[in-house]
Amino acid sequence: TMTLTKRAIPPNARVLIIDDFMKAGGTAKGLKELVLEMSGIVVGTGVLVATAEPNPKLIDDYESLFTFYGIDENTKKISIEPVFDEE
Fold first, then answer.
1. Which pTM value belongs to this model?
2. Which of 32, 33, 38, 56 has its CA 20 to 30 Å from the CA of residue 3?
3. According to the UniProt entry, where is the signal peptide (predicted)?
């Protein structure tokens, strides 16, 4: 459950949503709906790490820096790759 006071986001406030980790996108979707309900304007959504699955996510208009593919149970290695091109 997410709650905010009515004064937390003034009408027409420009809001950038930033999340550290996204699995299905429920938190980002909920925050976006909350901002819109308060007459705010979501200018973008950024995520540090998004999982590869499930795909598609509950939102599709976000930017992620890394994609998490999983953890190998035998070697305990984490599979994560940058989304951006390193050119």
1. 0.83
2. 56
3. none
**What CATH code is assigned to 14-82?**
3.40.50.2020
- pLDDT tens column, 23-34: 999 999 999 999
CA angle 73, 27, 43 (to 5 degrees): 125
- Copy the structure tokens of residue 53: 């699955």
Closest CA to 80 of 33, 43, 9, 72: 72
Q: 29, exposed or middle or buried, with CB in 10 Å at 0-12, 13-18, 19+?
A: middle
Can you tell me whether residue 22 is helix, strand or coil?
strand
d(CA 50, CA 30): 16
